[in-house]
Amino acid sequence: MKAVATTVTVSQTSQASNTTGTMLRRALGVAAVGASLLFAGHAAAQQVFAAASMKDALDDLSATYTKETGKKPVLVYGASSTLARQIEKGAPADVFISADQDWMDYAQKHDLIETKTRTNLLGNELVLIAPATTSGDVDLKSGADLDAKLGNGKLAMGDPAHVPAGLYGKAALEKLGIWSKLQGKVAAADNVRNALLLVARGEAPYGIVYKTDANAEKRVRIAGTFPADSHAPIVYPVAVTKQANRADADPFFKFLQTPTAQATFQRFGFSRP
User: Fold this and answer.
1) Which of 22, 24, 73, 101 is 20–30 Å from 191 (CA)?
2) 195 annotated binding-site participant
3) What are the structural domain ranges in the chain?
4) Does 230 count as an annotated binding residue?
């Protein structure tokens, strides 16, 4: 019996306080485990585990795919680190899309994916955001005065210990020589979309997210773009998992690489890798 295809998203509850990171970690943990339990033991069409930053574009593409094929993918969004570990624990994903190479490397090392299917799907940019009600840009160069601009506020970003956007952000801030001044002011979120929400709600004056996240949220504006050479290239690899039902997984996996899908991704701000 096939499970009903639905869209599952991570919890977006957050608070701007010293306990922000803990609360977000708990929220995402519950969501990820819930997703695993919801689909455990069921075979559903195209169960896709994807980086949270892909939500808007992938939701759009899912609707197109359903219209064309009659099959509605099951979409589970979260931090790439959390998704990779959930797959490792047996969560029934057919396709995995990571926001960086490291977590796809992890999946490959642990024999969770079909290595021959691994493909670089998309690229992205790293930006500094601020609430849309504010003004003024930040010149993201060596020695940038972001610490002074933050004052007593927090810098929202993905957890730099494991979330790809946070890892890219930490690397960029280190390259600019300002990480040591800012690390004590970081509001670490469990995925990039929760970091986005902290700024959108005015709970943090600045945040580090992908360009596509900033484009998707009207309550924020881009205050600066990190130099491309300040961090590793942002690449989203995709692969079919070892446990996949290939009859369901392969058509959607191939659809993601079609000109139609690529055009949609670019409309949402993604680039070719």
Assistant:
1) 73
2) no
3) 47-123+235-268, 126-225
4) no
